[in-house]
TrEMBL record:
It is found in: Cell membrane. One of its GO terms (cellular component) is plasma membrane. Keywords: Cell membrane, Membrane, Transmembrane, Transmembrane helix. It comes from Listeria newyorkensis. This is Polysaccharide chain length determinant N-terminal domain-containing protein. Residues 7-98 form the Polysaccharide chain length determinant N-terminal domain. Belongs to the CpsC/CapA family. Its main location: membrane. It is a multi-pass membrane protein. It comes from the Bacteria. One of its GO terms (molecular function) is protein tyrosine kinase activity. The keyword Membrane applies.
Length: 226
């Protein structure tokens, strides 16, 4: 039969005939997503530290405040540069060497996330790892290495560690609840596709309307004799 707007009565009949599958599909998807998230995927822990990039003005003149303000605005414009330096091979190679990490520089860089508020020189440095203790140690090592190295690269700037890395107690991923709900939504979408496909490819004549679509004339009913 040709594709057309789905009739409500036919759709309800299809749903009734396939009710078990329509209920089972979302439930099976949820169980699979829950099992994979809980027992297959390795939990990841995120540890974060806060650092502040400040200007080291040694002048004691009356213009000291003005110099500091101008340098602060300049530093805000260089925020992306500071982020790049923090994730550069120069910093990561030192961290890898001192901690004897098995990851490459690129692998370690992928674990690091840097966030900052707009027009702010306070940065949150986060590292995600399968071990909460290891994530904390990597963040602390990165911030301390950055603290020592940045003044050598950018004059009159220094790093203040506002908050050292915390020890995460709960994994940040995978999110079992969200993954399970996504699977449920995908199961519902699968149900809609299933009903649509059954409707489009059904080959049963259920009334005069179906005959008219096939350009056939209705002759009469054949009574059912039991």
């Amino acid at each position: 039969m040709s594709a057309k707007t789905m009739e409500l009565g036919v759709a309800l009949k299809i749903i009734k005939n396939n009710l078990i599958w329509l209920i089972a599909l979302p439930l099976v998807a949820m169980v699979i997503a829950f099992g994979i998230s809980k027992y297959y995927l390795v939990p990841q822990y995120t540890s974060s530290a806060q650092i502040f990039i400040t200007t080291n003005v040694e002048s004691n003149s009356e213009k000291e405040t003005t110099v500091y303000s101008e340098q602060l605005r300049t530093n805000m414009q260089m925020a992306n540069t500071f982020n790049t330096i923090l994730k550069s091979s120069r910093i990561l190679e030192t961290v890898r060497s001192e901690m004897k990490l098995p990851e490459s520089n690129d692998q370690l860089a992928n674990k690091i996330n840097i966030k900052s508020d707009k027009d702010s020189l306070v940065f949150t440095v986060s590292v995600e790892d399968a071990s909460p203790k290891r994530a904390q140690e990597i963040v602390n090592k990165i911030t301390k290495t950055y603290q020592k190295d940045l003044p050598k690269l950018v004059s009159n700037n220094k790093i203040i560690i506002l908050e050292p890395a915390n020890l995460p107690l709960e994994p940040t991923s995978p999110n079992i609840v969200i993954n399970t709900m996504i699977a449920f939504v995908l199961g519902i979408i699968g149900n809609i596709l299933l009903v649509s496909l059954v409707y489009l490819f059904r080959n049963v004549i259920e009334g005069e309307a179906d005959l008219e679509e096939m350009s056939l004339k209705f002759v009469g009913d054949i009574p059912l004799i039991k």
